[in-house]
Amino acid sequence: MEKAPSEELVSLTEEQKTLRVMQRMISPPWTAELMVKNLKFAEAVAKEKPVYFLRCTKNDTAAETIRRQIEEDEKRQKAGSDDCMKNMKKRIPKEHTERPLPRSSLGNPKSCGWW
Questions:
Q1: 101 vs 33, 57, 112, CA distance in Å?
Q2: Which of 24, 9, 4 is nearest to 66 (CA)?
Q3: What are the DSSP calls for 49-103, one per residue?
Q4: pLDDT tops 70 at residue 52
């Protein structure tokens, strides 16, 4: 977040996203091994979750700007998930989707430790 005369969400490169995530981590990189682990974790988070850089005023409109972006991202993600499921269903032969699993493949539910 950065003070600005108006609200603006700035697009970041993958490297910038990773750096922003690392800047907020509280795991100290006391050794080179810890630094590599932190970097890999930050890269994974930056790839999996949206990372924003908001330039904004101190007004309430800043919160509205980021809320709107999050909602748009969620809609896009849901639409993508729905499309993915439709495509998967098209690729799976019908006989595989209608036939129940054999009883032996279900295993013993009591062996899971849930009972």
A1: 46, 58, 18
A2: 9
A3: S---EEEE-SSTHHHHHHHHHHHHHHHHHHHHHHHHHHHHHHHS-HHHHHSPPPH
A4: yes
Would you say the pTM of this structure is higher than 0.90?
Answer: no
What is the 3-state composition of the chain as percent helix, strand, coil, each rounded to the nearest 5? 60, 10, 30
Give the other-Cβ count within 10 Å of 12's Cβ: 16
Orientation angle between helical segments 32-48 and 14-23, nearest 10 degrees: 120
Q: Which two tokens stand for residue 54?
A: 């908001």
Residue 7 in contact with residue 61, Cβ under 8 Å?
yes
Pseudo-torsion of CA 11, 43, 16, 27, nearest 10°?
Answer: 120
Q: Which tokens in the block code for residue 85? A: 């499921």
pLDDT tens for residues 65-114? 989 999 998 888 888 766 555 555 555 555 544 544 444 444 444 443 43
